[in-house]
TrEMBL record:
Listed SUPFAM superfamilies: NTF2-like
PANTHER family: ESTER CYCLASE, POLYKETIDE CYCLASE SNOAL-LIKE DOMAIN
Alphabetic keyword roster: Kinase, Pyruvate, Signal, Transferase
Domain SnoaL-like span(s) in chain numbering: 54-149
Protein known as: Pyruvate kinase
InterPro entries hit by this protein: Cyclase_SnoaL-like, NTF2-like_dom_sf, SnoaL-like
GO biological process: polyketide metabolic process
Region forming the signal peptide: 1-22
Taxonomic classification: Bacteria, Pseudomonadati, Pseudomonadota, Gammaproteobacteria, Enterobacterales
């Protein structure tokens, strides 16, 4: 009976030890993963920011849609559910938009970067009388080209429950 008890106890301890090791690995990534993900190349991030601001100014603020070719990768990925993916789809959409809203205006309020992502907080209007939209554009840059885009758009209301404003 005693040897059987010892074997069961050993198996139990081994199982608990392995379980604890497995749980620990699942809960916290290895230190090398943390180190690698926390390293940032700020000079590259600033180049990406400058590229995105240049693109946004030329194409969306100044309505020079043909300049989009020099900023967007051929395999550009679009996450906005109302625009087809691809560089040509975006350029066509922008041409149609500016034909419908020739007085559309956008103002970049603030920007931020994180790795290969550039964030823009934008005040966009279809025309000067429009209350506009608060927009957050997220653009991913790779090798000097914009390769991917996400956005969130929120209409600016006539009245607000607070005095903070959206910008």
């Amino acid at each position: 009976m005693k040897p059987r008890f010892i074997v069961i106890a050993c198996v139990f301890c081994l199982t608990m030890s392995l379980s604890a090791c497995t749980q620990r690995q699942a809960q916290s990534p290895a230190p090398t993963e943390l180190t690698q993900s926390s390293q940032r190349n700020l000079a590259q991030e600033e180049q990406n920011r400058a590229l995105v601001i240049e693109f946004y100014t030329a194409v969306l603020i100044n309505h020079n849609v043909d300049l989009a070719y020099q900023y967007l990768s051929e395999d550009y990925i679009q996450h906005n559910p109302f625009i087809a993916t691809g560089r040509e789809a975006l350029i066509t959409t922008l041409r149609d938009y500016f034909a419908s809203y020739p007085n559309a205006e956008s103002h970049i309020i603030r920007t931020s970067t994180d790795g290969d992502l550039v964030y823009l907080h934008v005040f966009a209007k279809n025309d000067p009388q429009d209350t506009g939209n608060a927009v957050v554009d997220i653009l991913r840059v790779d090798n000097g080209k914009i390769v991917e885009h996400w956005d969130v758009v929120q209409p600016v209301p006539q009245t607000s429950a607070n005095q903070n404003g959206m910008f």
